[in-house]
Amino acid sequence: MSLDVERIDREARTETNLDDTGGVHYREGLERLVESMNSEGDLTDMGEVMQHARLVSLLAARLQVEDTYRIHPDIEGEEVAGPVFVIGLPRTGTTALSQLVAADPQFRSLRMWESGAPVPPPEKATERTDPRIVVAERNLSMMNEAFPLMQTMHHSEATTATECQDLMGMSFRTAHFDGFARVPSYMDWVIDTDMRETYRYHRRVLRLLQWHCPPTLWHLKTPVHMFALDALVEAYPNARFLWSHRDPAKVLGSVCSLIHYTRSWSSDRDDSIELGTEELHRWWIAVRRAMDFRKRVGDARFADISFADLQSDPVAALAKGLADIGLGFDEESRVSVERWAATHKPSSHGSHSYDLSDFGLDSALIKEKFASYYATFDVEG
Asked: pTM score, two decimals?
């Protein structure tokens, strides 16, 4: 077996009994991704099964989104406020910062249980008892049992905020696929492709999710947004950013270790050395583009939050960050965020061990590559 675009397309349509994909924009990304996985991913038989299921699920979700819009065209009238995006290099505290923001009741966050299964649109009255929560919890439990190190690398819960990778994945244009399989030719394409339609579709899904389940001031998170901030802001003209900062020499080893582990679920190939070179290059592109974007649009959209501040006093760090982008942080917000922080201490799910040298990297090389980033931001901690 090898991955096959026509089979993926056919199974998604059969599974949902739907045909309208909302246009063909998704198709090029799917074709390039499948070609790269087949020729460069070195997938095991089980890996092919896993990736096939993932791709069918994403396309099925897209079909269901389009069908919901067909039945309820008034969803088009929904206005997405903000959003506030958490960005920054992976492993710089973006997840912790995102969860803090999600604990603030003024924000609507993308929960794991609704990310991969946005249809039917969630309802405010049942958002804590939706049957998809149980399904997501069961899937997480199965994943953690099969791949126990994942909990120490990236802890997830069904009801908490997750990255918006599924929303971008429905267009099959996102750098997240690099974490599931080695796909260098796809990555070369996707980090330079036109992402405007992808972010318009991203917004389309948010409209559906907030339709019966406010609030409408969204908070979202993923480091890969840094590759295409111009396209993001075209879709979200009022977007603002909380940018987390940490020494790249302290995070890139962790990035590589995480990707090396998640890729091992689908492939037996040891790509550790080339992985280090690839990740160093790609994440410098992301940071450079975000810095260039910020120089062009100014600082008003951005708040900087250091990893050290996030560790020492997370509530104060968030309050200052929100103030810097013109948002309030009232007593209700403070109490809610403090409650979250008190029950989710750093490293409470175990420690993650890794070494830069395992991936052909060293601190001097990273510091040289990111010299302008070190010179611009507080990256201590």
From this structure: 0.95
